[in-house]
Amino acid sequence: MSSFQSSSSLICSATASMNCYILALILVVQASVISAQVLACPNKWMTPDTTGTYNSTGVGDACQSSMLNSCRGGPNGVCVYSFRTYSYRCCYDVWSGLTAATDLTKASDEGWAKPLCPYGAKGFGSSGTQVVLCSLNSTAASARCPADYTCTRSVNQPPAPKLNDVTPLVSPKPCLAATCQAYLTPTLCCLTSTLSGNNQKSFALQGLTPNIVPVAPNGVIHELVFGTAAPIAVVRQGDDWSSQKSLFLTAYTPLGTSTTVTGVAATAGDIYLSGTYKLGATDKFHVLIFDATTNKDILFWNYDLAGTAAVAATPATTAAAEIPATPFKVKMTATASSVTPVAGVSTYTATYVGPASFTPQYPTKHLHVALVFQTSNTLALSIPTFVNTAIGTLAPTSVKGNFTTVTAFLKSTEGKALGAPIAGTYFYL
User: Residue span of the signal peptide, if any (predicted)?
Assistant: First the structure.
């Protein structure tokens, strides 16, 4: 029984009048209306809907906070107390939805995008994907971060408006930018030890370096976008998409389009890297995605790719809004169909292989890693022994490189010739 109902019962027992019962009915209706206006999840970048719907009015599935992994209906599932149902409910990150205009874009447009720590730094929780909000301008205990965390400005903020801009904001948009991103939640708690300006500490804390990836990347891949039609999965560092593994078939390639971080137009296959990179006239880039749990299964090897230099931001003036920076970009190329691989067998085909296409499919969640390498020329010229002349690509089990694990390859003469990865990310499928 709610507090409204309890109070009304006491009043009714005292007066026993028709007016009392009418008052009780009004109070119950008001309580129901207020409850209906409260979303099931505590933040608008979260949803109880397993389709990823933004601003969902649903109540979601019941869960037990004491049970790990009790929420398996979407990315980064968490069991939270809902003030709409007065019970624990499963909430997930808003991700795509089933419409052409993705719900992720809707959230970003209104300023409710999930705030992100900069340069691969970890957020809250063991995975580093949960958000604890804070304030840089308040000394209140509720605005401070837990021990070992620092209140940090999120990386996905909109550009600054014109310096003299007094145009009133148009509801429901909270800012003047075309995409408001995480405007309404500009700061969050990030793990202090990972706020180093590079990705090395996060890779080490994840257990990837030095055991699996001998040398951690400095930079971070902002996101990988799987799928070119709805539903689309935008995958960021640390994300747990294992409950959606069935989406990640071979046809669901990491060549999708998204503007959720950069705020600039992107085309299919563009991946943006944070950090500073030099771009030589003949430089080429190479992208490796593999299963770090088995350390054998290579999902993707795309090589000899073109890079595009970063463009610095143009500051706001009295006449024009800020033009946001365009990060360094690598253009991945289209992939053809691939044969179905055998799980746990260190074989490799020349194209992308989706984890959901493995036979048999792995029943547990696996950690996956994406790395970007840079060489001064095409692989055939810069590392002649690296390329299998029979099929024209890296073949870990071929005569050119008989490697038992991806780590063994990265430690080999051929692997070392690629140099340290310049950027990377990791996620669960």
Answer: 1-36
